[in-house]
Amino acid sequence: MAGLAALSAAAQSKIVTESIQSGKLGCEQKYNVYLPDGYDAAKSYPVIYLLHGLYGDYSNWVQMGGMKIIADELIGTGELCPVVIVMPNAGDNDVHNYQNGYFNVKDWPYEDFFFQEFLPAVEQKFNCGGSKGKRAVMGLSMGGGGSIAYAQRHPELFSSAYGMSAWLDNKQREVRGTGKPESKLTLTDESVRKHSTLDFMDNADEKTIGQLKTVQWFLDCGDDDSLMPLSVELHLKMKKAGLHSELRVRNGGHTWEYWHTALRESFPFASRNFCR
Amino acid sequence: MAGLAALSAAAQSKIVTESIQSGKLGCEQKYNVYLPDGYDAAKSYPVIYLLHGLYGDYSNWVQMGGMKIIADELIGTGELCPVVIVMPNAGDNDVHNYQNGYFNVKDWPYEDFFFQEFLPAVEQKFNCGGSKGKRAVMGLSMGGGGSIAYAQRHPELFSSAYGMSAWLDNKQREVRGTGKPESKLTLTDESVRKHSTLDFMDNADEKTIGQLKTVQWFLDCGDDDSLMPLSVELHLKMKKAGLHSELRVRNGGHTWEYWHTALRESFPFASRNFCR
Amino acid sequence: MAGLAALSAAAQSKIVTESIQSGKLGCEQKYNVYLPDGYDAAKSYPVIYLLHGLYGDYSNWVQMGGMKIIADELIGTGELCPVVIVMPNAGDNDVHNYQNGYFNVKDWPYEDFFFQEFLPAVEQKFNCGGSKGKRAVMGLSMGGGGSIAYAQRHPELFSSAYGMSAWLDNKQREVRGTGKPESKLTLTDESVRKHSTLDFMDNADEKTIGQLKTVQWFLDCGDDDSLMPLSVELHLKMKKAGLHSELRVRNGGHTWEYWHTALRESFPFASRNFCR
Amino acid sequence: MAGLAALSAAAQSKIVTESIQSGKLGCEQKYNVYLPDGYDAAKSYPVIYLLHGLYGDYSNWVQMGGMKIIADELIGTGELCPVVIVMPNAGDNDVHNYQNGYFNVKDWPYEDFFFQEFLPAVEQKFNCGGSKGKRAVMGLSMGGGGSIAYAQRHPELFSSAYGMSAWLDNKQREVRGTGKPESKLTLTDESVRKHSTLDFMDNADEKTIGQLKTVQWFLDCGDDDSLMPLSVELHLKMKKAGLHSELRVRNGGHTWEYWHTALRESFPFASRNFCR
Q1: Which among A140, C200, D90, D158 is most buried, taking Cβ atoms within 10 Å?
Q2: A77 touches chain D (CB under 8 A)
Q3: Distance CA C247, CA C256 (A)
Q4: Where residue D276 falls among pLDDT bands split at 50, 70, 90?
Q5: Closest Cα in chain B, distance from residue A242 (Å)
Q6: Are C268 and B79 a contacting pair at CB < 8 A?
């Protein structure tokens, strides 16, 4: 008596929650991993790093973003190749009271952790990535900014970067948490300002531009999102510099519905830019 | 310190949970209601009845179907007019151990309850509907079949009907729960068989066809859904009879992702068929 | 022996080519009109003005833009109500050697012609429009700018305006045709500069803003189109002023494919903003 | 004075018209070829065969289907890899007065011509295809049926097949042109009947099914197209046999607009199924 529940076959993909002990951060960091239907540790897979936003954590993309059902569907049609999708944690919600972001700040060398500890460990553990041609990065809001900045600063590591509703710069914003200059949020704000992806383009020399041309770029932001002008501005700078950049402004705001539907564009984009 | 949470304005729509004491069913029935941003009880609204599937309840469309965020977005663009959306409960999960469906079965006159008790009460309470031109019905699976059957049997009440992954007929299926002929699920199965929407078309006389032409019909089912041929068959019968029927077969199975995205088609469809 | 040609019914809509003798322009002006399937001169219809771009003429939307097949399809699904679609001619290709645009320039009072001669005549002849609630304007490139400017300058006449790849301002462009200050193209350039839709927003007083709020605005421009920043800038100005503006940046350039597919958004947009 | 014509860069792809002298058919056969931007005869490309419908010819996809602008756009985003697209001629409009189709009929061994003369010659001439993993076939109506039948009968040659509004079987149709048993159209009708893709599935033994599993299948037909049930039926037979089949029923009839938009699905489908 299976009922109507079995009216269509479901993919046997899995979400596993793991953790890594970070020497650099001095704490344990949890993360989620999507393993595709038929995942076989003896085979090698490409990898997508899927980053969460401010105030969020590693569990968001599964619990609020519905990433599993979209990945399953797109792998089913072949629009996304079988891939390992890694969802890291950008903060340290157990110990500190604020978000910390994707960059190195005082007492929290997150970018060092990400590239020197996390990425090598997770790619070895799940037999994925291993080279630029098999690695993509994407994310939403603070994680969208993180994705673009990571690919700007490490173009030799990523074949593509996709920023959703991306927090790409902080120059026109008040530093929040004034009066609490040491607060984690103030540090996050300052680090976004310091790592402005717009400034990065303005300051890039010819050699850097050459390296950025080896990455495929995509910016996607809602027409009601106050961050939208940042995506437009960066797209124009990248186009002017001769980079391959796509821009989309779809209907919507800074919402999970926007990011959920963005996956239908971002996953195939990553997939077709993996090396053949 | 508003943070990034307020990067776009959110609609002030509401979900309210209500209940009605049914004399016919002899129990209380809960339901959810979506009230649009700026809802004003002094104004009159059109109404959409949004039906859940087998094993489900009145809470599904909010909790699993993400109906609120889609309704908000489509009202924002004007693709959906400001509307009251009513999500009834088809079963009685507290008292009986099985689903009961949308039709009258032994000791459970649900269709009578729906049209004689529920619909009048909710439309009065929320100042919505009141006439065919301001009323639509839609739903998924068992609720998709229920939507089509309700509009077939009460064409004077609905301007449009939209079936998602609809359970439209039961002739080619085994009666489930055999050996338990009195089980609720057996009754549900038998009632779908008895109210076959395909048979309804085969048996419709000229006068009935004339009435059915006053309703706009839409069938939408996934290419991996084993119920899909039913939607195709009904669409062909309706077209042959001169009814206005739309059919879509999109990628997917019998899943919440399919129904979530179906709302982007079904809500505007209902809206543009409300009388002007 | 009907062959496969009759495998689906075709809408019996019509394109008719008409002309009007303009006293203001001192010449005859041709235009195309789309009349929907079942058009009945005894009934009243809403009207859409669909404007062509620089170097184009009244025939473009039919011959290069494929507007008929899209209008037929969208009327078939109800996404567009039965409507008269008027495609005027912005230039005078027979007499002058350059395009003239949608504004009054020296010896070519086109805007006067449009509102004082053309619009009243065509609406009477085809029994369409007649009021703001039954009138929309849209167009591509120079005609996109013209659409937005017309609705800014005559908000009492249009319920909605949709600019595709719109030429909204000319301040950052060289005056073309320098050395030929009297050339028609120079006049067109100067007139776009003079009627900048961006400046219009900057200069609008409170009363004007109040009038602009009665119009629904939509800007749609490709991510590879060098005019795109103008649409973004105007959208931001309109949002800031509290107007209802939608912005889309889709993939593409300044091409007929972009405008052809834009009709799938612009026609329903106009339709749902006609008064009920 | 570049004007607005150069507001976005255009791809430098080309359509070239060629012809081949066929010994088997005893006549010359023209065909069109799409060469992507940057085509370099020294490199090797995958190939797509894009087939026209009844009463059509090799020029249709360019002149009426707008295939160039869609291919350019999709190659631009990477959704379609740089590919040679070959548009053959199925008839012999100069000599005979009727269409002849894609199969061998009396005095017209077209299938032999296609596989023994045409395909080898064109792939050598344009340095494309050469193996199953670099070859796809797709087409509309009679060419949709031809595409599916070719891949059924030559599964070792194609990685994917996509039928648009496909004429897949002829059993339920009257033989047209009765009274003229020797007419070309009668021969075409009979050949579609004889090569029924539905019968092919019914009659396929285990070994054949195994070969069909190496091809990716896609059927796409409008909800107002009288051929639609054929696509549904074939999809169900293929799914039942364990083949990878996709089905879409979108809005529309048997029209060029349907086929034009189908290319947005069919080109990426072919591309992602080319071998890596």
Answers
A1: A140
A2: yes
A3: 19
A4: low
A5: 31
A6: yes
The C-alpha atoms of residue C154 and residue C211 are separated, in whole angstroms, by 9
Split at pLDDT 50, 70, 90, the class of D143 is: very high
Any bridge partners for residue A30, and if so which? A19
Q: Which residue has the tokens 């989309």?
A: A248
- Binning chain D into helix, strand and coil, the percentages to the nearest 5 are 40, 20, 40
**Binary contact (B66, A257; C-beta < 8 A):** yes
For residues A74 and C4, the model is more confident at A74
Between strands B47-51 and B84-87, the pairing is: parallel
Reduce the DSSP state of residue C186 to 3 states and report it: helix
From the list A3, A76, A165, the residue facing B55 with the nearest CB is A3
What is the C-alpha separation between C261 and C65, in angstroms, rounded?
Answer: 9
What residues of chain D lie within 8 A of the CB of A273, using their CB? 78
- Give the Cα separation of B162 and B143 in Å (integer): 10
Q: Which two tokens stand for residue A57?
A: 């954590």
* Residue whose tokens read 């002094």: B42
Instruction: Provide the 10 A C-beta neighbour count for residue B9.
Output: 11
B251 with D246: Cβ contact below 8 A: yes
Number of cross-chain residue pairs from B and D with Cβ atoms under 8 Å apart: 31
Taking CB atoms and an 8 Å cutoff, what residues of chain A touch C239? 224
- D77-132 pLDDT, tens digit each: 999 999 999 999 997 655 554 567 999 988 889 999 999 999 999 999 999 999 99
pLDDT on residue B61: 98
Cβ contact, residue pair B229, D235, below 8 Å: no
pLDDT digits 0-9 by tens, A214-269: 999 999 999 999 999 999 999 999 999 999 999 999 999 999 999 999 999 999 99
Identify which of C77, C269, C276 has the shortest CB distance to residue B276. C276
Provide the token pair at A129: 């990535």
D-contacting residues in B 205-234 (Cβ below 8 Å): 223-224, 228-229, 232
pLDDT value at D46 more than 60: yes
Which pLDDT does position B93 carry in this prediction? Answer: 56
Out of B98-107, D64-73, D233-242, pick the least confident.
Answer: B98-107
pLDDT higher than 90, residue A184? no
CA distance D72 to D10: 8
Query: What tens digit of pLDDT does each residue of C160-181 get?
Result: 999 999 999 987 655 454 445 5
CB contact under 8 A, C78 and B272: yes
DSSP state of A174: P
Angstrom distance (rounded) from CA C81 to CA C101: 29
C95 interface with A at CB cutoff 8 Å = no
ipTM: 0.93
Residue partners of B179: CB distance under 8 A and separation at least 6? none
Task: Point out the residue among D8, D177, D257 whose CB comes nearest to the CB of C73.
Answer: D257
Query: Do residues D64 and D39 lie in contact, with contact meaning Cβ atoms separated by under 8 Å?
Result: no
Q: Does B153 touch chain C (CB under 8 A)?
A: no
Query: Which region holds residue D98: left if phi is over 0, alpha if psi is between -120 and 50, else beta?
Result: beta
Between the alpha carbon of residue D109 and those of residues D56, D90, D121, D137, D144, the distances in Å are 19, 11, 17, 19, 19
What is the rounded average pLDDT of the residues D132-138? 98
Residues from chain C that touch B78, judged by Cβ atoms under 8 A, are: 216, 269, 272-273
CB-based contact (8 Å) between C52 and chain A? Answer: no
Q: Which of C135, C142, C134, C186 is nearest to C164 (CA)?
A: C142
Q: Is B235 helix (H, G, I), strand (E, B) or coil?
A: helix
Contacts of C267 (CB under 8 A, 6+ apart): C48, C70, C71, C74, C79, C80
Query: Counting Cβ atoms within 10 Å, is residue B219 exposed (0-12), middle (13-18) or buried (19+)?
Result: buried
Show residues of chain C in contact with A228, CB under 8 Å. Answer: 232
